[in-house]
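2024-03-11 09:14:02 DEBUG pipeline.ingest accepted 1 chain
2024-03-11 09:14:02 DEBUG pipeline.ingest length=395
2024-03-11 09:14:03 DEBUG pipeline.predict start
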Amino acid sequence: MGAVESMRGSTATAVSLGMPRIPGRQDGGEDARQRSGAPQPGGSGFTPAPDRPADPRLLDRFGRTATDLRVSVIDKCNLRCTYCMPADGMVWLPQNRLLTTEEIRRLVGIAVRDLGVREVRLTGGEPLVRKDLADIVAGLRADHPDLPLSLTTNAVGLAERAAELAAAGLTRINVSLDTLRPDTFATLARRPFLDRALAGIEAAAAAGLAPLKINAVLLRGVNDDQAPELVSWALDQGHELRFIEQMPLDADHGWRRENLVGAAETRALLSRDFILSPDPRARDGAPAERFLVAAKSRPGVVLGTVGIIASVTEPFCGDCRRTRLTAEGRVMSCLFSREETDLAGPLRSGATDAEVADRWRDAMWAKPRAHGMDRPGLGDAGFVQPDRTMSAIGG
């Protein structure tokens, strides 16, 4: 199986959720979410959760604190990746439903000033589709000079905008790239834009938007044989590659756990060409488990790092620190939540910052234990796939 599998044993051990329970607080089921008072989508009433502690941060009932904010700026995308979107037929949000630049700035300000958020990532859809993206970045940077501010993108169109975004104050970039082969890219993304994506990555590096992190999803029979190729390229370019397990967030609801290329299999694929050893740095709430990479011909020379985000087979829900805003201003406490809390409506109806912050706290207090449920288990009995696709949530 290779160095890592021999070190870890013949089978990978799932990461314990490690959920500390707050004394005297609710357990994690659906009833508790209803009792918490978190509004349902489209609801107009709001009752503060009676059992939430008097703490200004974004706490939940399982001892976690959200400090990492993902803000989707648009739901549209210029690709149609098979594991995310249908080939056609998507209905986009009308312009007046999207958060404006000023509303994004205000909500991020509330999050940073009042709720303890320490880093922000702009997501989509594809953020580059939004024409005023640089204005959003510049506004956030003006408001928060020291805030780590990153962007997740497919890099199509980034070549023309990387320098502008860097000048506006963007810190770094994550790029979704599943292959280096034009035919595979066209199959996965349903668009022949690999050259544009690679040009965007080069431009981002030249603009100093580093460290660049490259996110790749392996699909069985499509690009799983290309994992070592992707690692070699990323190491040569000085980027950090992270493999992300495919999650049930596709528009066609065709995800099946038995088709998954999981973390253990990914490590085995990489161990044919590389020696992997655990990165000694603390994970500190990061979704990726990181490994130091060395070539088998030079085992003592570390070439760089690679990460694996194993949301399905080795879940890390117990240390999740993320809170998400959709493009129309709804809080999603978990990527797989089926409950959402509207902030844009109150914001536009005259709510104060304190009222919006309290609503946000209640939304996070109602966060489920794992995978939108009271236990981990993507694809298991009881799991219900969210109605939203990944592009409509924001990663």
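2024-03-11 09:14:41 DEBUG pipeline.report The mean pLDDT is 84.
2024-03-11 09:14:41 DEBUG pipeline.predict end
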